[in-house]
Amino acid sequence: MAPIPRPSQSPSGLDVHKFTSRGTFRLKAYRRKSIKLDVAPFIQIAKWQCQTTGLTVVWADTPGPICQMNAIVRTEIFDSSGVPHTLEHLSFEGSQKYPQPGLLDAVANRLLASGTNAATDIDNTTYTCESASAEGLLKIMTIFLDHLFFPIFDDDSFMTEVYHVNGKGEEGGTVFSEMQGREGSQGDVMDLTLRRILYNKRNAYRSETGGQLSALRRLTLQQIEKYHEAMYVPQNMTLVVTGDAVHPQDLLDTLATELLPGLHKAGHDLGPKPAGFIRPFVESATASNPPMLSHDITETVTYAASDESVGIIKIAWIGPSTHDWRTISALSALGSYLSSGSASPLWQEYVENKDSTCSSISFVTDGRDPVILSFTLDFVVAKRLSNLGSDFLSTLDRLCRGRFDMKRMKARLEEWRLDVLQALESSPESCVISAVSDDALYGREDDATFSEQWNDMLAIDELLRWKENDWRNLLATWLIDRHCVTLTGIPSAELAADQASETKARVAATCQHLGRGGLASLEQRLAAAKAVTTQPVPPALLSSLKPPDVARILLPQAETARSRGTGGGPLSTFKSLQWTINKDPANLPYFLQLNHYASSFVSVSAYLSGTITNHWPLFVDSFFSMPVQRQNGKVLTYQEAYQQLDDLAVGFTASGCSEGLLLTIQVPKERYDEAVEWLADTIYGTVFDPERLQTMVEKSLRELPTCLEDPMVMAGAATTQLSLLPQSTAYLRTPPVQAQLYAKYQHQLKTNPKGLIEDLKQQRRLVTGQSSVRFGVRGDVSGLLHPVGAWVEHFPARGPLKTKDLAKLVHVADKMTACGKKPSGQGILYTIPSTQSTFMCAQARGVEYDHADCAALQVAAACLSATNSFLWNACRGPGLCYGASIDIDVDMVQVALLIWNSPDVFAAWNAARECIESLASCKTMIKETDLVAAKSNLIFGHADALSTAAAAAHAAFISQVIRGRPANYDRIAMQKLQAVTLADVLSAIRKYILPLFAANTSIVGVSTSPAKEADVYRNFTKQGYRLGRRKSS
Predict the structure, then answer these.
(1) Which residues constitute the domain of residue 460?
(2) So what's the pLDDT on residue 515?
(3) Which segments of 457-569 are extended strands (E)?
(4) Where are the alpha helices (DSSP H) in 588-657?
(5) CA-CA distance, 291 to 293, in Å (whole number)?
């Protein structure tokens, strides 16, 4: 793309050079992000460090209504006790200045945020919060930071949040439940095994920071307190705040007045580098004990899974220093060339052929120091697990000695450039935070590496000058000639059964050891802890905080117009855009909506809907995966079609949406006509090739066991199967149904392939008629020369079509079963050998989006489900599950109760029932502060969904065209939310949410382990549910 002049202003319009210092904060490094976009955010990024405490603050004026805070703490530990993870959880339980548990999230929910969150990785714990108000974010930030630097640690929080044993001898605790669902899983087993091979005991990367179950059982509160003293110090934290509404002066002044006095009083005033402080990972034993491989290592590991037909292979090498950005960039580009997309050499070798041995291959450069390079071959057929690793290494060697396709390499580099530009448009804050996080963890103290975090364009320009030998030497140097670790992951049904038996035996042994008296004592102590940690936040603590003015939220807008043809006519809201469209003399006999916003890109879409057959899943999969006949009559092989489209587009997708299929191709705006032509050829020119279909079907059959063993997916699948007709796309997408259908496709390909191909052609005819399809364009529409003419050229008329002749769109609610329309006690219980936890989905009848009760029901659900609110305190607070929520689906006209990662799902369900009944009867009161927080939470959700112009344009097409909602739906919805009263919420709870807990008005889907299956069945049967018992595979 040609360079253009840099604009005079960034999104905030500020000159950050004016803020070189503010109090004790000094500007350390500054970079103005200016990339050659036709329309760009031109984000400013500034970095200050407090000279008394060492706290680092980074500010970026990313555009949009959402302001975000990330507090990054380097967390290094040399064991698998789980201290970093448990400390993350306990940090939310109150602070010295704000001791009330739950206050932090209550404040966030009140101030146009959606609670707070955190995540612990191998080298850091990051705390996050987003708000649709700059003022609100700064208020939340001060309370949040107080919780991080000055938390309260007590036995009650430890018992409920970390680990306990209840009166039945069962283990619980939020952290323990979470890790119980992870330990032994494929991903955790492979990752931990690799790290135990690469790193010795003096290297912290060897640790399981989440906590191994055996270690969590022995963990003490004193260990956590000691770790907090060492790691949660200001010089070990980087605070990142994004959003052009946040003024840097306000940010630094808030920190100076609200945070620094407390830090100084606590003795954290010894400067950026206090005596004795050792920077984690950079100056610690980890840095002096790097990974080493003196020879190749091959190891086989087993993980719990009921399906043993597919496994996984991971091959890893020790890469360059994290500061060697040029080499890392080159290796990332090389990995993309070798394994990104169906046309890549490795996919052609192992995935996209009739002898396919795996379903996907990915390359990752892990951001540690040094970087770890790895290829992962997923869903490997069992018979190839023993030798595919060595075969893969031989293939790499052969590719190194062969010819590099420099045309493809150049295309991948240009694709990388477009990906960067697109990411800056669609999620600028993520780009900033990712780069700043890397610098915070491993950047040099002199900030020499800070600006290097945004060197993508420089790296691409340099790599475009590389010759074939440069790439060959890179591959040989870092992969071919270096020692590697090859891990083969083998699924084991026996191990899954052993886990279930061990859990059962442990409970029995605990009960025998403690006896009735000991168990009763534990139950009493746990009840006392629950009473303390689930106390509601006093309204007086919240009422002094005035909620931000919703009217000040400036949502990005995408102008909307329609072509003069079918469904067209001027849209008065955006007359200028409609006038531009009407200037195009073309008259299109199709429905076409255009949404304009300033962008370097344009997306073209087609929504296909109509009669659905059992071949729908395979029909959807076939897009962008088959040979294509172009309009000039030439038939491209699958590889040629994919490669040409990959070279053209920034991205292309085929995804289910409501009761149809949404096809989208995004391209640089100057290639708009080509995108429209490709969309037409994809819809009407896809050639259903039996060999390609066979490859796709076998690939899907290999991948399905993973979905069948996902307990949350299966619990949701159960209620979907009960609620929807077999002709519904959502029903056909459930894993149990897909497992049956793909087995039938496989049989049909062997016995009657022509019949299958004719079935797919018939499905295409049923959804691509002139009256069925809806087209859309979004992006820089005003800059297009002939926005409508391209469609007339490539979508020739199949006769005139009047607006009244447009086929009525079918929605999910139109395909409900009698059970879905009137739930009455049906249920499905899936047994999944590989899980140790239980997951549940209960459903009752809800309302449509335009129902008079919709806003009240949404507020009620938000009120109940908010962090540290009613359901949290009833279910998660006591350690009965990792999470519980009430979800509203206006498309399916359903209200649902979700419970996940539960050691005792019936106890969690019963606690939720008692909570709702108490609210419905007014024994427990919903306060005005709860109502305000729920509304704030929902309004944030609307703002977040429309945080960029690209998101607003996409939402306009989905909402207006597919779902049939008015153009100003979000504004209307927010107004309705603000009008909801406490009486409305109580009415909604009694009318729609309470029925979730009665068998005659609800249905349930549950997935659990074999050890808990009998108890789950017995308990819910006693409640009147008629459960069908099924195995997941």
Answers:
(1) 320-481
(2) 94
(3) 485-492, 559-562
(4) 616-622, 638-648
(5) 7
Residues 206 and 345 placed together within one structural domain of the fold: no
CA distances (Å), 187 to each of 184, 191, 304, in order? 8, 6, 11
Same domain, 791 and 834: no
Residues whose CB is less than 8 angstroms from the CB of residue 414 and which lie 6 or more positions away in sequence, other chains included: 460
Residue 579: CATH number of its domain: 3.30.830.10
Among 208, 183, 181, CA closest to 195: 208
Instruction: State mean pLDDT over 307-330.
Output: 95
Q: In angstroms, rounded to a whole number, what is the distance separating the alpha carbons of residues 682 and 663?
A: 9
pLDDT value, residue 110? 92
Q: Per-residue confidence at 19, pLDDT binned at 50, 70, 90? A: low
Residue 1021: helix, strand or coil by DSSP?
helix
User: Phi-psi region for residue 569, left (φ > 0), alpha (ψ -120 to 50) or beta?
Assistant: left
Query: Does a structural domain hold residue 711?
Result: yes
With respect to residue 512, please indicate whether it lies within any of the assigned structural domains: no
Whether the Cβ atoms of residue 667 and residue 602 lie closer than 8 Å to each other? yes
Residue 281 has pLDDT above 90, yes or no: yes
Residue 6 lies in a domain: no
- 706: closest CA among 834, 615, 618, 840? 834
Give 863-907 pLDDT, tens digit per residue: 999 888 899 989 987 888 889 999 999 999 999 999 998 989 999
CB 189 within 8 A of CB 301: yes
CA neighbor of 238 nearest in space, from 12, 41, 75, 23:
75
299 CB-side CA count, 13 A: 19
668, β-bridge pairs: 601
Residues 593 and 713 in one domain: yes
786 plus 858 within the same structural domain: no
**C-alpha triplet 789, 792, 794: angle, nearest 5°:** 110
Q: Does some domain include residue 509?
A: no
Could you tell me where the DSSP H helices lie in 770-920? 789-794, 818-821, 854-865, 870-871, 905-920
Q: Indicate whether 779 and 837 sit together in one domain.
A: no
- Do 852 and 776 share a structural domain? no
Domain count across the chain: 4
Structure confidence at residue 969 (pLDDT): 87
Does residue 340 share a domain with residue 388? yes
On whether both 754 and 627 belong to a single domain, the answer is: yes
The secondary structure of 557-623 as a DSSP string is --EEEE-SSTT----GGGHHHHHHHHHS----SSEEEEEE-S-SEEEEEEEEES---TTHHHHHHHT
pLDDT for the residue 35: 30
